[in-house]
Amino acid sequence: MIMLRKYIVASKDKGVRLDKYLKSYNDDVSRAFITNLINDSKILVNNNPSKASYLVCEGDVIDILETKPKDMELKAQDLNLNIVYEDDTVVVVDKPTGMVVHPAAGNLDNTLVNGLLYEVDDLQGIKGEVRPGIVHRIDKNTSGLLMVAKNDLAVKDLEEQLKNHTVTRLYVGLVAGVISEDRGRIDAPIGRDPNDRKKMAVVKDGKPAITNFKVLERYKKATLCEFKLETGRTHQIRVHMKYIGHPLVGDPEYGNKKLVSETGQYLHAKVLGFIHPKTKKYMEFTSELPEYFTQYLNTLEK
Q1: Which CATH architecture has domain 170-268?
Q2: Which of the following is catalytic: 94, 139, 157, 251?
Q3: Is CATH 3.40.50.720 the classification given to domain 5-64?
Q4: Model confidence pLDDT, tens digit, residues 215-265
Q5: I need a labelling partner for 173 at 20 to 30 A (CA). Which of 55, 60, 112, 272 fits?
């Protein structure tokens, strides 16, 4: 059998039920699905089958041997995607806010992948059945540019570029409060929030994370910023800006609850640049801010 995911239990997680522990690290599946995997011996603790009620210990090695339901089948759906670029190797798509990137248990329809299967040929089976061609993600309520690989060689090449931090990724976001500095660099490790496992936070034992920001416009109670990522941690910009006291406006998880927007956080992946896996030439794409974003900016007092 092939091990698909491995976890080593940290001291802060000891004493947590096995099913609850794994759910905290796997937002894309339900706890019931995890329990079924445990019952089917698809999850091993120290190379042995276990029970969902097992209380994990520091240093336990947990292997997941399967990560998708057997009946999960992807459907091609016409979601009117905005395909910015396509050739026989890569696709660049401009994702709208509110759209999840890939299907997961309990959420099999209306994702970016469903739309890509309708628009693009030969994606089925690339990089696993539920994430064909997906090499990186942006949050459901973040809009903007994503690159998608059309073959396994392109997957490996683009993933290597991401790993080496050679992909250009510029975001534009609106944060709460007025930032006095014109530029800044946030170097703070990110990991699971010990108080809420569904969220991320700046934690001492987290993975290295670096976000650079530049002020584009100051408003009376908010600041429009450009963000350049040196790393690609989950929710990185959202977590870092909350950490310095300027959370994204509209963010339902990390922002001011009084300022939650129907569209979620005002964050847009504006620029994406990478070396083409086949031609080895650098390519760069730009996406303008969505209409709902610019309309909101027009209501703000400078």
Answers
A1: 2-Layer Sandwich (3.30)
A2: 139
A3: no
A4: 999 999 999 999 999 998 999 999 999 999 999 999 999 998 777 778 899
A5: 112
